[in-house]
Specification:
heterodimer; A: mainly alpha; disordered N terminus; B: mainly alpha; two-stranded antiparallel ribbon; 24 helices; 5% strand; TATA box-binding protein-associated factor RNA polymerase I subunit A (chain A); TAF1A (chain A)
């Protein structure tokens, strides 16, 4: 802030009593506004050769064409930019090769006339323009073929890359080679899938095809197993491996792989790993105790996950004493996220939990435990008049459910939420009113007290919580007192 | 190695685009990068590369034979420059320069140069010591007669054939010094001596910019209508060979190694650099007084200003004013060049003409960001009153010019961005680099082709035939791209009759302070004064600097120079002063650069 102010100040406005040091500092600041500008990319160098000027200008034109999506134009300039590769004074020839590679693929992706042959020939050229990018370009090439459904070609590209050697193998290079192997395993899996589809469509047992499938499976599993040992997120590889294991009925193996993937400490924490494990277990009817264990971990990792609803219903199904409280916690956690805030299912879950909890003696204490952290803002967040209006517009049932909940938790607060409900309810058909009335009848004393509270607070139509309002008033009064005393 | 086995087979692999052939045990060719086996066996190659003999015997002897052929004959660097000069001269002749230019002027200059730099026609050749040193292994006896042979042949060439048989000039240099020494680092014999620090410092040796400087001097001598700015523009547009000029060398002159440092061109020299180069070269050659530039020569300011007036779409009537200024500045006499007199520098004919026009514009329109617009309003009023009259409206001219200038500048930018610099036959500095360089060349070429296919248009910008003019003015119709012509407009709104003679209706003239400058230490002051100058004036400087391809500062300095002469003479001659008037001097004492206003 300070800087900005001093920058905006005109030198004439400076106070005369300010010391000369200050002035000089200020002047400096005015001269050089410290704005976060990106360094100029296409700056002219002091003694630039004509060739460099051409390439610099050309790159600038390409950039402009790309930003304006004029792919035709960009391709035109690109064809003359390729002479940078021949720069004899370049200190970083690899950089130019990379620029050509990146921009070239971008143009090819968007150009209306680009064909697969263009891609193929382009990638082949780029691969040979620099040693450093060989593996990366190979990988990208095979991705492109993969996306276009040319699995065999993609596989061939990867096998070429696998057999490529240049100089000493750097750490970077060996990592990339592993990735390439993993993808070749993945491609094996895809080919395996194709074979499987043909087998299932013909409905005939063909030993030859089966044999072939099995060999693909073996090749693929070797590569996939290898990559899973390394730390990283390998979701597509794990899924494909599990799919194959499942096909060959190796359930234990599959569970082991998934367990390793989920619980290995070397791997980065990956919620998907737990999700896959849960889904697999659920599919194969594992006992709910195990499922709950997985979901519990998942809950700590991602409390907003969709699976948490399933977790909640599982908890509700179980007979254990503490599970109801856990379910409450899970639901409340879910409601903390904006995406779930007006979800009927979640609120329904909350309603059933409250209904069940009420049967117990010390239920309020349990609720208070869960609500300890949310005390100040929870009600204010979910039960504003604005929220009520929106809920009504979106889903009337939701409004009812929420009214029940707020009635249960804090009858005093219900007034504000319900008041709006009432106001808007005027336009509602009589039929709906009837149902509401019947529901109202169901409500106990607390809702009645809530109505009284509503009358009292109707005057204060702010969105402040009641408590805050009171506190403020109190503070105001005290201030006034102090003034009077003085 | 395999290279010998494959016999230099250098087709591109159809599979991967590499050229890395190996021969398998069965004698079949395969690509070592993608293992693609092709339909070619070892025996076939031998017959292909060497048309004589299909037997295996010939393939055994091919090793040394091939090497000889690859080496080509021996040649001197100055021979290379001779070829380049020859091509440049031929290009100039094709443009319509008088036929004597090549043989009688440029050729003579070149001979003088060779003599002055002691490369030929001398008893004491510059490379003598060098040769002895380098050919120690092969013996001294060989080098001495060879040199004399060379100089003799050059002598005889200059004596006998007046028509200048250029190509044969170097042809008689014998090709029988030992291979070993010269083939190490360069194709030419004496490239190394060109690159020693001492030789570089002496500046006597030829370089690529110097070929252009020599051409410029020769053109001046022949009084041809091609100015330095024109020459540079033709070079830029590729009408005169300069970039990759070595491609025109005959087959047996091989360039590699150190030669590439001498002949490779990666930029076109600037106007001022070339001007300086030409001046030093003229002094180096000790050229006598140049033929005077008279009124029948297009380089004379009178004619040159007509050309630039046409180019800038200014009315022809302005030329009278330009001539009056020229007369007063006394510039009709001193337009020739005498290199040996230190006080006569090589004139910038083209920039001078532009400066004259700018001064005329200032005289008539003042160009102080106010007066010219007022005059334009007057002119438009006059045109409204009288629909047939066409008085020159500066505002209209500015608008037309500005659009044309913007388009032209954009076109120029585009041409710069697309200019192709690299040769078909790339140069490599060492044998080691050869494969890399060739490979890069191939890949760049293929990439270029593939993108060309994608964009569906040729890479090189469409080249137009050489022309003296950048712009093309005229009435709406075919071939007019820049706007309506204003050449026939009259200046009646900005000129009025006073007494017997016409005077500009604008009574004032301003100029930046004519302060004394130390020519040695002072560089251009344009950068510091640019902000204090009127915008219209700056724009005009920018226009002419674009037309001539020089920096605006250069035009500014030239305007100052001409102004100095013009004002000095108008003060000393009382008759030059027309109605003396008191003017309101717009002096701003706080400004560093006072702008003086003179009354005339």
């Amino acid at each position: 802030m300070d800087d900005l102010e001093s920058e905006l100040r005109v030198p004439g406005e400076l106070g005369e009593n300010e010391s000369s040091d200050d002035e000089s500092i200020n002047r400096k600041r005015i001269k050089k506004p410290n704005l976060p500008l990106a360094p100029p990319i296409f700056k002219e160098k002091p003694c630039e050769t004509g060739f460099h000027k051409t390439t610099r200008n050309c790159l600038q034109h390409i950039r402009e064409a790309l930003l304006h999506h004029r792919w035709q134009k960009a391709a035109e300039y690109m064809s003359s930019y390729s002479q940078t590769l021949e720069d004899t004074t370049a200190n970083m020839p690899q950089l130019y090769a990379e620029i050509i590679w990146r921009i070239g693929t971008e143009i090819l992706h968007h150009h209306p006339d680009s064909k697969l042959e263009d891609y193929n020939s382009f990638y082949e050229r780029v691969k040979h323009s620099g040693v450093k990018h060989y593996l990366k370009v190979c990988l990208e090439h095979s991705f492109h073929l993969l996306v276009n459904g040319q699995f065999e070609d993609a596989k061939r590209q990867l096998s070429i890359a696998e057999s490529w050697r240049y100089g000493k193998q750097s750490a970077d290079q060996s990592q990339r080679i592993k990735l390439i192997q993993a993808y070749s395993g993945f491609l094996d899996y895809i080919i395996w899938c194709e074979k499987k589809a043909t087998v299932s469509s013909t409905d005939e047992y063909d030993a030859g095809v089966n044999q072939e499938m099995h060999s693909y499976f073996r090749q693929s599993s070797v590569n996939l197993k290898e990559i899973m040992k390394l730390p990283g997120v390998w979701d597509p590889f794990v899924l494909s491996y599990i799919d194959m294991l499942e096909f060959y009925n190796d359930h234990e193996g599959a569970v082991k792989v998934l367990n390793d993937y989920a619980y290995d400490n070397n791997l980065p924490p990956n919620p998907n790993a737990h999700v896959y494990l849960y889904r697999y277990m659920k599919k194969h009817d594992h006992p709910s105790k195990k499922l709950l264990k997985v979901l519990k971990i998942l809950h700590t990792l991602v409390p907003s996950l969709e699976l948490m609803l399933e977790y909640c219903s599982l908890l509700l199904q179980s007979d254990k004493e503490g599970d109801l409280q856990k379910a409450l916690g899970v639901v409340l956690d879910l409601l903390d996220y904006a995406s779930w805030r007006s979800n009927l299912d979640v609120w329904n879950h909350l309603m059933t939990i409250i209904k069940r909890l009420r049967l117990r003696k010390q239920w309020l204490k349990l609720v208070e435990e869960e609500m300890a952290n949310r005390k100040d803002w929870w009600l204010a967040m979910h039960f504003t008049t604005f929220q009520a209006r929106r809920d009504l517009a979106v889903n009337r049932e939701l409004l009812e459910v929420k009214r029940f909940v707020v009635g249960a938790f804090c009858p005093r607060y219900a007034s504000m939420y319900c008041g709006v409900g009432k106001e808007t309810r005027k336009g509602v058909t009589s039929e709906a009113q009837k149902t509401k009335r019947s529901k109202k009848a169901e409500k106990d004393k607390e809702s009645k007290t809530a109505k009284k509270a509503q009358k009292r607070t109707r005057k204060a139509k702010s969105r402040l919580t009641l408590r805050k309002l009171l506190e403020r008033r109190r503070a105001h009064r005290q201030e006034q007192k102090c003034f009077k005393d003085a | 190695m395999d290279e010998e086995q494959t016999g230099g087979y250098s087709e591109i692999c159809g599979q991967c685009g590499e050229v890395d052939w190996g021969v398998s045990d069965e004698g079949r060719f395969y690509c070592r990068s993608c293992h693609n086996v092709i339909e070619r066996t070892k025996e076939v190659v031998d017959t292909n590369t060497f048309m004589i003999g299909t037997s295996r015997v010939s393939s055994i002897s091919k090793g040394t034979k091939r090497k000889k052929l690859e080496q080509g004959r021996e040649w001197m660097v100055c021979e290379g420059f001779q070829f380049i000069l020859k091509h440049q001269a031929e290009a100039l002749l094709a443009m319509g320069v008088c036929p004597q230019f090549k043989d009688d002027v440029l050729c003579q200059f070149w001979r003088m140069y060779l003599q002055k730099s002691r490369q030929a026609y001398t008893k004491n050749p510059v490379h003598d010591g060098k040769f002895r040193l380098r050919s120690q292994g092969s013996g001294e006896s060989e080098s001495a007669p060879e040199l004399s042979v060379m100089s003799d042949s050059m002598m005889s060439a200059s004596e006998t054939d007046g028509d200048g048989d250029w190509a044969s000039g170097g042809g008689s240099v014998s090709g029988h010094t030992s291979d070993g020494v010269s083939s190490v680092c360069s194709g030419s014999v004496d490239a190394v001596s060109y690159l020693t620090p001492r030789q570089r410092r002496s500046q006597g040796l030829m370089s690529m910019p110097k070929t252009l400087a020599l051409c410029h001097l020769a053109l001046l001598w022949a009084r041809e209508a091609i100015t330095l700015a024109d020459l540079l523009r033709f070079v830029n547009e590729g009408h005169i060979p300069y970039v990759n000029a070595y491609e025109g060398f005959p087959e047996e002159m091989r360039l590699y190694g150190r030669d590439s440092l001498i002949f490779r061109v990666e930029s076109i020299p600037s106007y001022s650099h070339l001007h300086k180069e030409a001046q030093t070269l003229a002094v180096f050659l000790e050229l006598p007084l140049f033929p005077p530039i008279t009124l029948d020569c297009l380089l004379h300011p009178t004619l040159l200003t007509v050309r630039y007036l046409t180019e800038a779409n200014l009315p022809d009537e302005l030329h009278d004013w330009v001539c009056r200024i020229m007369e007063k500045a006394g510039m009709e006499s001193s337009v020739t060049f005498e290199p040996m007199r230190s006080r006569s520098p090589l004139p910038h004919y083209d920039v001078q003409a532009a400066a004259l026009i700018i001064i005329a514009m200032k005289l008539l329109f003042k160009l102080d960001d106010h007066t010219e617009w007022d005059l334009s309003n007057d002119a438009s009023d006059k045109n409204k009153e009288n629909p047939d009259g066409n008085s020159f409206n500066l505002r209209r001219w500015y608008r037309t010019m500005q659009t044309a200038l913007t388009t032209a500048a954009r076109r120029q930018q585009d041409n710069i961005a697309r200019k192709h610099w690299k040769a078909q036959k790339p140069l490599y500095t060492s044998k080691k680099d050869k494969l890399v360089v060739l490979k890069r060349r191939r890949i760049a070429e293929q990439l270029q082709l593939s993108f060309q296919k994608l964009s569906g248009s040729p890479v090189a910008p469409p080249s137009s035939p050489p022309s003296s003019f950048c712009f093309c003015w005229g009435e709406e119709g075919e071939g007019v791209r820049d706007g309506p012509s204003m050449h026939h407009h009259t200046l009646d709104s900005s000129v009025r009759l006073r007494g017997a003679s016409l005077q500009p209706s604008n009574p004032e003239y301003w100029h930046p302070a004519l302060r004394a400058c130390k020519p040695r230490f002072c560089k251009s002051h344009y950068a510091e004064v640019e902000v204090t100058l009127p915008r219209m004036y700056v724009w005009l400087l920018g226009l002419f600097s674009f037309l001539l391809g020089v920096k605006p500062g250069c035009v500014y300095e030239e305007v100052l120079k001409v102004e100095r002469r013009f004002l000095r003479s108008s003060k000393s001659q009382p008759r030059a002063r027309a109605t003396p008037r008191k003017t309101q001097p717009k002096k701003q004492p706080k400004r560093k650069q006072t702008r003086k206003t003179c009354s005339r």
